[in-house]
Structures
1.
Amino acid sequence: DQQVKQNSPSLSVQEGRISILNCDYTNSMFDYFLWYKKYPAEGPTFLISISSIKDKNEDGRFTVFLNKSAKHLSLHIVPSQPGDSAVYFCAASKIGNNDMRFGAGTRLTVKP
Amino acid sequence: EAQVTQNPRYLITVTGKKLTVTCSQNMNHEYMSWYRQDPGLGLRQIYYSMNVEVTDKGDVPEGYKVSRKEKRNFPLILESPSPNQTSLYFCASSLAGAGIPNTEAFFGQGTRLTVV
């Protein structure tokens, strides 16, 4: 039972353009959402997060949008750079809880 | 340097031979977790621990054991490994549970386990 879904296994964009990675969740109890980035042969590293009291959080080139009614969040990367090429995991949890649920990941390739 | 260290990085073993994957963190974090990553399934939590001597089951605990006798260490034990436990394993630690800024989880580099 995957409570967090990333339906696009891969995404390819041109350098300088916008990358949009999508994530859907089914459990309405989730109130905290995170994106992690993973390079080959490394562990995931935290990228950006958002709590359910917000609908947008921005950190430099990275912005996460949350649509609670649709149970959908997205990660926007603008402008995309070749170094952004990695697997991106969406994760969801309840605030204060350590039980994080992850999506299957989306492999982003940014072409020079 | 703040880090989560897992050992070994790679392991090939035979069905039924008990093994332990170690995990150690140097950040004095309360929370530690184990995940496995499988194609198409992402990261699934195996066990987590909120403090010394406090552990709980995650999503996929069957076939695994953990212990938390010291704050810094959280070993993953496979008493009788089977081929369906072939996977990439990650240990993670965090200062607190989800939702508190600047306490997000740090992950180790992973342990690739193959059970034949």
2.
Amino acid sequence: SQKIEQNSEALNIQEGKTATLTCNYTNYSPAYLQWYRQDPGRGPVFLLLIRENEKEKRKERLKVTFDTTLKQSLFHITASQPADSATYLCALGDTGNNRKLIWGLGTSLAVNP
Amino acid sequence: NAGVTQTPKFQVLKTGQSMTLQCAQDMNHNSMYWYRQDPGMGLRLIYYSASEGTTDKGEVPNGYNVSRLNKREFSLRLESAAPSQTSVYFCASRADGGSYGYTFGSGTRLTVV
């Protein structure tokens, strides 16, 4: 069955460092991958979308890579700040049935001042 | 700029009671979704609506019904609540085209006792 794995353990980093979160998947060939941020008690907030034919995408301090050979996406936050502390979710979709995203469980990130 | 609005934010039901969760979006999106989020299970799709007048089952539709009242509103109904339906429910919408992420509401925390 289709499966997404994200770092199950919380990630703790020092302010100013780069946070790197991983999203691995199996038994799936997604057309695109999305990253979301979720704060406690709130709904997920869309951050970035990267397509299967794109290797890398950037938005301000965020960078996403997508390696369809390794079946992996890396999500980087450079110059991290305490305000970046949240849970980050990855989700996969395909062009044929993109109403049904497959979601990871998320990785909790804590940026310490 | 409200985005996706969900009501109520919190609800406690007794087993067997019914209720309707309301969702409205003001972004003129065709696609709308209902998800539930449970610890260790991630986001699971209950129902979705690709356009006004159409609805389709998602991954976990049993025990739920939906109504796409118009383009703005998509409601979720629990006819006879069960403790297994204790969860956080999120409504989301998405613009057409392959470059857009989902916009989520702030969620409804439902407890069935």
